UniProtKB/TrEMBL annotation:
The gene is Dsec\GM23941. This is ATP-dependent DNA helicase 2 subunit 1. Heterodimer of a 70 kDa and a 80 kDa subunit. It is found in: Nucleus. Pfam families: Ku (PF02735), Ku_C (PF03730), Ku_N (PF03731). Its main location: nucleus. GO terms for cellular component: Ku70:Ku80 complex.
């Protein structure tokens, strides 16, 4: 996806506009594929660097199996002396294998046997890698262009439709060939093949002081069709963290929630997209399994229509099955049944396409800083549907920033949804400076979609019982806890906080399938309790200003009948008295029916009113008796 950057965009006041071709609509269906390529030169500096690269891939394999096992993952070793076939050797029948390359895993969906095979390989990699794969002779440099050709061929012949394909090259060598060699120029020419195939190439440096200048700066800019000056050197440690998470977070294409048109006025609109700042962690779908063999129980929904005879009997005259789309709704209008089909209902729901309409502008100070109605979204332009949307979007964004305004709009996010009032708040990409975290890659220049509250979202709380004189504290006690709060402040880091229940579920799945345990500390990674104790250590003596806490008395646990507990409470009214209707009338007159048990109330209804009631609460039984007595 081409991200929108106002600094690199064309100025609105520049000369004539160039003619742009209307790009074809992107197909967003397909699978994600990531092909790992590990440089065998990592073993020259010691096996620790090679093991670190393999551990990154191990983490990516495990997280990939838990997150989305439909995606494809493969593994190639480059610059090797030997080329042993993979476990599934028939997968390379239609692929030309170059020298100094070895395919360990063709592009496949992650399954338990594949992950177990990789874990078994890692168990003896320190002693067997040199003998099985080795290092290319004489200088450890194989043909880089042939390696890229192998990657392209594997991605094209994987047998699946791909939507997002990446090649991740883990290496510590800054140039694959000398700059004055023919192989160097042949390697650069392969960058155009990557750009034409829309395959992304990522270099994952295994050293922090990696130099991109000799080769990879020019190769990456050619493969992405960008200017050489616009290349920014990424942080090596951050790239390794992203790769181990298996999802390259800066790729917004997989995060896009939808495309819609933004109408600014009559005959004036632009094409935009929006996405979530943070994705929800999806839990695995619940299924029912058989106890004998753990096979999944498959269910099928069947709708049966029955027509009864007109003579008032319960006999069925006609019976047939229909599809879900063949159903209907029936409502009574003017003593006649009106039947509405599902097709008619869908046509009413689909009167409008997903769109946004501008209503007006307000000052930014009129919007609260925090809105707890719904998480905000991020909106950015898209030229695929309407040419010139980026320029028009930039003009609106710049004027809102300069004048400190927000746009109030009516937003219909998807089909069959209810329109919502939203505020478009202009935001700028943060200048993190020294901060190095891939979470900052999720923010950019554009509009933040803030959902405005409605009347149903506002609650009125009665604080009268809480806010009284008995619950007040003097200024000294308030200042004490202000100091405590300042001492216990922590830096909120979302990347260190995971869903505890989801972590526990994934840990159990890994323990059952792969037979190894994982560390699920949860919030323990964020909070250092020993450091917090040291911060408030000096303030603890002042805590004596508060009165000693009185521990409420504990309730005595109920004894069982075997332990000598008393028998259950008996009825307060004798059953023989309830047989007399005069006594029942006196209970009704005095409002004493609640003294009877539920069984006695059922007895009164059946004995004196000849009414049989289902099991209900006592209040409803009493109300029924009083109603019948009137």
């Amino acid at each position: 996806m081409s991200t929108w950057n106002p600094e690199n965009d064309v100025d609105l006041l520049s000369g004539s506009e160039d003619e742009e071709d209307v790009s074809m609509k992107r197909d967003y269906h397909g699978r994600e594929a990531i092909l790992f390529v590990v440089d065998a030169n990592l073993q020259t500096a010691g096996m620790e660097r090679l093991l670190e690269a393999l551990n990154i891939i191990r983490t990516a394999f495990i997280s990939g199996m838990l997150v989305n096992d439909k995606d494809l993952i493969g593994l190639i070793f480059a610059n090797t002396k030997h080329s042993p076939p993979p476990l599934e050797a028939s997968a390379l029948d239609n692929i030309v294998m170059p020298d100094n390359c070895a395919v360990f895993l063709p592009l496949r969906q992650l399954t338990k046997p594949i992950v177990e095979h990789y874990l078994e390989f890692m168990g003896g990699v320190e002693t067997q890698f040199g003998d099985v794969y080795g290092l290319a002779e004489p200088d450890g440099r194989g043909r880089f262009d042939l390696m890229i050709r192998l990657c392209i061929e594997m991605l094209e012949k994987c047998g699946k439709k791909l939507n997002n394909a990446k090649i991740a090259y883990l290496t510590d060598v800054s140039e694959p060939h000398p700059s004055n060699s023919n192989h160097f120029q042949a390697a650069l020419q392969k960058a155009s093949d990557l750009e034409g195939k829309e395959f992304e190439f990522h270099v994952i440096p295994m050293v922090d002081d990696f130099d991109y200048e000799p080769f990879y700066k020019e190769f990456i800019t050619l493969s992405r069709a960008i200017e050489l000056d616009s290349f920014q050197v990424p942080d090596a440690q951050m790239l390794r963290e992203i790769l181990s998470d298996r999802k390259l977070k800066q790729d917004f294409l997989r995060r896009c929630l939808g495309h819609f048109s933004f109408y600014l006025g009559p005959n004036l609109s632009m094409s935009v997209q929006y996405y979530n700042y943070f994705q929800r962690r999806a839990y695995p779908r619940k299924v029912q399994i058989l106890r004998r063999d753990n096979s999944v129980v498959r269910t099928k929904r069947v709708i049966t229509v029955q027509k009864q005879k007109d003579d008032g009997s319960q006999d069925i005259e006609h019976e047939y099955q229909i599809k879900v789309t063949g159903g209907w709704y029936t409502c009574n209008v003017g003593e006649k049944d009106l039947r509405i089909s599902m097709d008619q209902l869908n046509r009413v729901r689909n009167l409008h396409k997903p769109q946004m309409m501008l209503l007006g502008f307000k000052h930014r100070s009129s919007l609260p800083e925090v809105s707890y109605i719904k998480p905000a979204n991020f909106m950015y332009p898209d030229d695929q549907s309407i040419i010139g949307s980026k320029r028009l979007f930039r003009a609106l964004w710049e004027r809102c920033l300069v004048r400190d305004k927000i746009a109030i709009c009516l937003f219909m996010s998807k089909r069959k949804s209810i329109p919502r009032y939203v505020a478009l708040v202009p935001v700028e990409a943060p200048d993190n400076g020294e901060e190095k975290t891939y979470r900052s890659l999720l923010c950019g220049d554009g509009f933040k979609i803030v959902y405005l509250p409605e009347a149903k979202h506002i609650r009125h709380l009665d604080m009268q019982d809480w806010n009284n004189t008995e619950n007040t504290a003097d200024e000294q006690k308030v200042e004490f806890f202000q100091k405590i709060i300042k001492k216990l402040r922590v830096d909120y880091q979302p990347n260190l906080i995971n869903d505890p229940s989801l972590d526990a579920l994934q840990a159990n799945l890994l323990a059952l399938s792969l037979d190894f345990s994982t560390d699920t500390k949860g919030l323990d990674n964020l909070l250092d309790t020993t450091q917090q104790d040291k911060r408030i250590e000096k303030l603890l003596p002042d805590y004596e200003m508060f009165a000693a806490e009185v521990e409420p008395p504990k309730k005595r646990a109920a004894k069982s009948t075997t332990a000598g507990a008393s028998a259950p409470k008996m009825a307060k009214i004798d059953d023989n008295q309830l047989k007399e209707f005069e006594f029942v009338k006196s209970l009704i007159k005095d409002g004493a029916l609640m003294r009877c048990t539920a069984a006695q109330l059922h007895f009164i209804l059946q004995q004196h009113f000849d009414v049989t009631m289902p099991k209900l609460v006592k209040e409803k039984l009493v109300a029924k008796i009083e109603e019948l007595h009137k």
